[in-house]
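tl;dr need the bound structure. longer version: we got a ligand (adenosine-5'-diphosphate) that a collaborator sent over and nobodys looked at where it sits. i said id run it. heres the input, straight from their email, havent touched it
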Amino acid sequence: MVTPLTCRNFIHGEWLASSDGSCLNSYNPANRSEVVAVFPRSTLADVNRAVASAREAYQRWRLVPAPARAEYIYRVGELLGKYKEELALLICREMGKPLVEARGDVQEGIDCAFYSAGEGRRLFGQTTPSEMPNKMAMTVRTPVGVCALITPWNFPVAIPCWKAMPALVCGNTIILKPAEDTPACATKLIEIFAEAGLPAGVVNLVHGVGEEVGQALVEHPDVNLVSFTGSSQTGSVVGEICGRMHKRVCLEMGGKNAQIVMDDADLDLAVDGAIWGAFGTTGQRCTATSRLILHRDIKSKFTQMFQERAEQLKLGAGDQGDTDIGPIINAKQLQRVCEYIDIARSEGAQVLLGGEVVQTGHLQQGYFFPPTILDGVTPDMRVAREEIFGPVVALMEVSSFTEAIAILNNTNYGLSSSIYTRDVNLAFAAMRDIEAGITYINGPTIGAEVHLPFGGVKQTGNGHREAGSTSIDIFTEWKTVYVDFSGCLQRAQIDNR
Ligand code: ADP
């Protein structure tokens, strides 16, 4: 039995237990009896302390030149490289994804560090002529202030990095509130930020229950910005509070992503994409493929090829070398997946593969659910419209490109999308007509790169884009500056007419 790790909050450069000493456990989803970490169930007092620490540090941090702030983030990137394997193994144990994917999670953090740090020497504004003589005008970016970063468990390193790194380079101070399922990953990440030498109070970590400390951070009057990734349900709560308080808020929520396969597609390639898109990370990505929209002329061939490949996928713990599909994160999520299978059956869909919790051998110690294919799914069914967040994919038949696009768009979400076709005209029409923040041509719905904007339309988000150069739009305010060197009062729109 491995000894559980002890995690603490990180406030003003100190590692602290919760103010009342209470704790929670995180578990290995591949072996539910294994406690991975014991972490603080933080209180309102802890939240207040962290916000005060971030507020105080902000007054100095905002004055550190941006290229100097970025130097710390370069150092975080180097340290993430040094600890990559250790962190990846921790992700496997606490979150459950296969080791290769866990390494990818850390690599995304490294990529984000170097990309975000580069912004320290850009953060461009504009200069523009004034309409008056002897006067100039410009725009500069200023930090927003204290940022609360509320993150999910599915990318326990990459998502906090996506938020923290640009926030810090832009001159904000941060409080990370990680998911209850992955506190050890967050703790190791913040240890790395601490080792990089960031001044006390610039980076803070508060563990605990979302409805308690997460919401307390959102409601705190001294938190200027909330960046949230998680369920649509929680995102609505966060968005409502921030709306009421006129607070900056960036929401990244659910998806119901689809891959279209046209009759002229390279079917081997399309099957490769569908297997990775639907079952990679056990379907627990916000960009996972949860619908396959198949042209009727290739549907039966594609389905046969897809099913054969899905049957061969191996379930297991993330740190076992040959695992393709890790466990589902926790009991609640497993139950939700089961409920959706019942809903699918009751609505008339057929379960072609999977559909039952795995209860054999050592896999019964964890939350394992096999790759599941639902056939005969029609647009009105709930499994065609609602996010499931598990290794479940719905097959939908169409007879034309126009119908495929209409079905793809028939959801409240709009995160990722994909089309497999060899017809360049259809590819360009799809790029234009698909309602989503991300569209892949001849690639699966998953696979975002950090230097490109990430986010969705409709109810997936609230108009922001993380990653890429657009991330600095989230974490800065524009200031417009006029410099009048005429020595006299010049009235715009009046004195020059
Ligand atoms: P999931 O269902 O995928 O776990 P959640 O949206 O519940 O997604 O959780 C995402 C993050 O939001 C987690 O860090 C969680 O603790 C936090 N959270 C949950 N409820 C609230 C809330 N009411 N206010 C703020 N944060 C919350």
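gonna send this back to them w/ a short note. The chain has a mean pLDDT of 97.
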